[in-house]
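Regression test attached.
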Amino acid sequence: DAGITQSPRHKVTETGTPVTLRCHQTENHRYMYWYRQDPGHGLRLIHYSYGVKDTDKGEVSDGYSVSRSKTEDFLLTLESATSSQTSVYFCAISDRVENGYTFGSGTRLTVV
Amino acid sequence: GDSVTQMEGPVTLSEEAFLTINCTYTATGYPSLFWYVQYPGEGLQLLLKATKADDKGSNKGFEATYRKETTSFHLEKGSVQVSDSAVYFCALNNDMRFGAGTRLTVKP
């Protein structure tokens, strides 16, 4: 997707290890979001940011933390990964919430 | 809290059939409403949106009308193609809520 990239695309990690996922944008959009996608649940919001160093919790924030030290980067950290965090993680950006989002291609995370 | 409810799938149609995917919402105030589409192995793409009551969003032959009186935003297309096979998500910008998604398969 133009202007937003996620890394890595795939990752397998062991239970109890820390994991950081990166979202990078070149659109200079104010808002950035992390969602997880699981069968039967659609997308659920983990954390979001409305500016540099301004973040807030979403619906399923337990076990996750985020940081946004620059406009273009939004990091999602699993401090100690658990099997319940096996999921596909999507980053999204927006300039105005009423305009909708642009999504990244996703990161498939498997915790074994 | 605010929420979005979509019709459960999967939905299987023959090519050129008429499509309706139902979406209803519960929200405070006057949210913007969206439909997103996700093709296999990809992220979601914004398909269409409506920002106020009675607005009709449209794109690629799909359309949806913001009905405040019935709190609905149903997605329709008059003649589906095989290439429309995907998962469709209804969403509103209050609390950044998404529906569970409806998988559409169109057969030749």
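Expected vs. actual: identical. The interface with chain B takes residues 1, 33, 35, 40-45, 48, 58-59, 90, 92, 97-106 of chain A (CB under 8 Å).
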